[in-house]
Design goal:
The chain has 127 residues and is mostly beta strands. The chain is built from one helix and eight strands. Helices cover 8% and strands 45% of the residues. It is elongated and about 70 Å long.
Length: 127
């Protein structure tokens, strides 16, 4: 019968065999092989949709770098500006969330110009 204690070599081998996988890029992800938890992040420029350059009411499609296998637990969004002197503030609202991505709606919460706005960051957690 085997003793329930493990050697340092056995423990080290187990720990080293279960490494997180990662895609290190501006739109990337990190996955825990033991739990299946995935953390993803990205950036979406306000440019790129004709007639919809970051102004209120714009909706952007965000595709996750890797699809979640079963659930999205949380999505967080934030704005990127190169100058805040205008007093304008925008927020991004995630909606129509799926395992493959979500839509991102841009909304004014103060001010009326997007001159200083560059784009929007997002982060998602799920399995």
């Amino acid at each position: 019968m085997r003793n329930s204690c493990y050697t340092k070599t056995e423990v080290d081998a187990k720990i080293n065999s279960a490494k997180w996988t990662v895609k290190k890029s501006a739109n990337g992800w990190l996955k825990d092989p033991n739990t299946g938890l995935i953390i993803q992040w990205g950036y979406r420029s306000k440019e790129g949709q004709e007639g919809q350059e970051g102004q209120e009411g714009n909706s952007y499609t965000i595709n996750f770098p890797t699809a979640f296998s079963s659930s999205v637990y949380s999505i967080t969004t934030s704005s990127k500006a190169h100058n805040t002197s205008s007093g304008v503030m925008y927020i991004g609202i995630a909606y129509d969330v799926t395992k493959k991505g979500f839509n991102y709606y841009v909304r004014h919460i103060s001010g009326n110009s997007d001159t200083f706005m560059d784009g929007y960051y997002w982060m998602a957690i799920g399995v």
